[in-house]
Design a protein that fits this description.
Elements: H1 2-16, H2 21-28, H3 32-39, H4 46-54, H5 58-87, H6 93-107, E1 116-120, H7 123-136, E2 144-151, H8 156-167, E3 178-180, E4 194-199, H9 202-220
Helix pairs in contact: 2-3, 6-7, 6-9
Length: about 220
């Protein structure tokens, strides 16, 4: 795993020097697809662009940059529209409860006997679910538990500290960490691992499940 991380860091170094994906693939003995995934967000300095231009590859790089600029402009427009939408929407406690239930429907455990279970690697989604849960229901914070699924290259204490800050759940309420192997095709140095939020309350899990089921039935009947 250490060697794999070294390959990733070396690929970043070569890319910033202006090496093409094909060159990096050959030098590090990795697939071109892996190189592309590792390096797609790397910004190239002027010297790297000059080297690529001399090798006749700069046109492809420029084309990707133009597409990225267009994507960012469209994303900015969508964000502005969404902020206006939220500004004109009254988010009552009942609405928040429905949103919480819908998130639980998508990413939560479907077996209510063990209580609420919500798992994701997206820290923003985890944080959003917990905000909605805390604003919608009366909770006992001591019933929360957090389980982490990490890769071999993670620092366990660092990730516990990170997820404790995200979830606002003390580290002494974290259960044993599960460490899983990594294929090496995708290495993200900022990847925080996957977190599972447990809340040991069967009634709450059943209420969330009922809300999203009845909400779905209500829409399907055309009652809204």
């Amino acid at each position: 795993m250490i060697r794999l991380k070294e390959k990733y860091l070396k690929s970043v170094e070569l890319r910033k020097k202006g090496f093409s994906l094909t060159e990096i693939k050959k030098q590090l003995k990795i697939s071109k697809g892996t190189a592309s995934i590792w390096l797609r967000d790397i910004e190239l300095p002027a010297a790297a662009l000059e080297r690529l231009a001399k090798r006749g590859i700069l046109g492809m790089v420029r084309s990707r940059e133009v597409r990225e600029e267009r994507r960012k402009a469209f994303e900015k427009l969508l964000r502005e529209r969404t902020f206006r939408l939220l500004k004109n929407t009254l988010l009552t406690k009942n609405y928040l409860k429905i949103m919480c239930a819908l998130l639980f429907w998508c990413e939560g455990g479907k077996e209510s006997k063990s209580g609420v279970r919500f798992i994701n690697s997206d820290s923003c989604l985890i944080k959003t679910f917990l905000i909605l849960l805390r604003k919608s229901f009366q909770l006992d914070e001591k019933k929360f538990r957090v389980g982490l699924h990490l890769h071999q290259y993670h620092n366990e204490e660092k990730q516990k500290k990170y997820w404790s800050k995200i979830t606002k759940i003390p580290r002494n309420q974290f259960i044993k960490v599960y460490c899983k192997s990594n294929t090496g095709k995708r290495i993200r140095m900022d990847y925080p691992g996957c977190a599972t939020i447990y809340y040991h309350n069967t009634k709450l899990a059943r209420e969330l499940t009922t809300i999203y089921k009845v909400f779905s039935e209500y829409l399907n009947k055309g009652a809204w």
